[in-house]
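Feature request, filed as a ticket because there's no other form

It would be nice if the structure record came with a short human-readable summary line next to the tokens. Right now we just get the raw output. Example of a typical job, pasted below so the devs can see what we mean:
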Amino acid sequence: MNQPAKIAEIDQKMSHELQRVLAADKDELFQVMRESGGEVLLAALRNRSLDENHLLALLKRRGLPEEIFTTLHSGRRFSESNPLKFALVSHPETPSHIASSLLPQLNVFDLIKLCSMPGITPDQRQCAERIIILRLPTQPLGNKLTLARRGSAAIAEALLREGLPPVVDACLDNPHLKEGAVHQFIVSAASNAETISMIARSGRWKGKPNIRLAILKNPRTPAIWFTLFLPGLPAGTLRDLLLVPRLTGIQKELVRQALKSRRGGKA
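Raw output as currently delivered:
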């Protein structure tokens, strides 16, 4: 068989295959999504029996041609599918401009899930975090509590700054929350007697020297924490506390009493 004849035969076989894929039923389409490539896959995307589950199966594969991602992104049949948007954004081969355009369309919990995935790029993670933080003011309390427990350090810090007591309590158990963020919250105007007491009771934070000092330098700290924390401080630290201008008269009196109890001991 000469070369032109071979080419004609290949073209004819491809034409038959494309027609078969266009007419395939739902079960056959799953096999196409798992095994076929190139032109056959692109033809399958035009099949009227195609549904969201076929596309999700397809996006579990690697080594897909870029045209697949472009076609899925520009198509209208599944443009409102949240699972498909997430599958596209989280696929490591999705072109960056497509992933970036879809990120703002994801819900906050998909964004949180995306942030914890090992294959996500640093730029995508930071973008997802920024989107979540911008949405925090409009989130219901239940969502904020979940985000406070599961969110990244940046998200937990942003929630902490809001100062809502139940959310602050949840943030304190977040393993990503950093000491600097807790310290900054204590000295900020967002803290109050209730939230300061939450930190003072926290098994994770109450034993940290910088956190204790920040608590004892805050005029909104309830007197009970002076009573409990001052006995464990060196006399020099107690004298420094007396110089803190923000402390109330009652708080300074508690410090003086703690100093008096040291008479006869080492300074």
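Something like this underneath would help us a lot:
The chain has three domains: 14-55, 79-138, 140-267.
The chain has a mean pLDDT of 90.
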